[in-house]
Amino acid sequence: MSGHSKWATIKHKKGALDAKRGKIFTRIIREIIMAARIGGGDPDKNPRLRKAVLDAKAANMPGDNVKRAIQRGTGELPGTTYEELTMEGYGPGGVAVLVELTTDNRNRTVSEIRHGFGKNGGNLGEAGSVAWMFHKKGDIVVLKSAAKEDDLMNIVLEAGGDDLKDDGENWEIITDPSAFEAVSEALKKANIATVSAEIGFIPDNYIKLEGHQANTMIRLIEALEELDDVVQVYSNFDVDVEKLEEVAG
Q: What is the DSSP letter of 132?
């Protein structure tokens, strides 16, 4: 990716994809609640909620769970009150780290994030310390085997996408957040499957780490992702996976 898709690719190659269904459900439910609270409970009129509901379906979440989460978000059912929070910091080698969170207890969450950074070679930064290095974009990853570059480029540009990049084994499609749905729908109509599709923060540039620093950075990201309140971790971390495997081995 850019930002997160690079990390997703690293995890895939390392065989460390998150298979913890319960944690996935928890995060999706929180996102549905927040989306419904902010934009209303009708997915057709609330793009953020629509995306969360699609994620729930992709994760095989029961429809009743989705319905109850929407109702908690709109206030039709009682439930925990969550707030969104963004925290920033640095990893080994000065890598920038941006963490999106949804929490019902800010003090607890700040303490856990601070501990996660400190225990894994990082440092928690002040608000605004690294956010300026990232821009919010739609990011869609497609296997190279799923489409030819020229065909994919035409589909992406016609649907309003910004760019198509070569990310090794994948094509990475960058869009403005407002064009994300249109591009996703165009790919679906063309029967082009996606590896991942999300709106998130993409860094302006990357810092490549090797050896011990790379392994420490991976431990930091994994430690942060394990925390229940963490929605997403973004960074400008890059690594040569083959060399990483040699070091790890």
A: G
Q: Which of 218-230 are b and which e, b meaning 16 or more Cβ less than 10 Å from the residue's Cβ? A: bbbbbbbbebebb
Mark out the alpha helices in the chain (DSSP H runs): 4-14, 21-39, 47-58, 63-74, 106-119, 149-158, 180-189, 211-226, 241-248
Kind and range of the H or E run holding 175? strand 170-175
Q: What are phi and psi of 203, to 5 degrees?
A: -75, 155
84 beta partners: 102
Residue-wise pLDDT tens digits, 6-18: 655 665 555 544 5
Strand partners, 85: 101
Residues in contact with 95: Cβ distance below 8 Å, sequence separation at least 6, in sequence order: 207, 209, 217, 235, 236, 237
pLDDT in tens, 45-85: 998 999 899 989 988 999 999 999 999 999 999 988 889 99
Enumerate the β-bridge partners of residue 166: 171
220 contacts 91 by C-beta, under 8 angstroms: yes
Q: How far is CA 183 from CA 1, 152, 186, in A?
A: 16, 11, 5
How many Cβ atoms are within 10 Å of 157's Cβ, its own excluded? 13
| pLDDT tens digits along 126-139 | 999 999 999 999 99
Within 13 Å and on the Cβ side, how many CA atoms surround 202?
Answer: 18
Taking CA atoms, 170 is separated from 74, 163, 182, in Å, by 39, 14, 20
Q: Which domains does the chain have, with CATH numbers?
A: 21-74 (1.10.10.200)
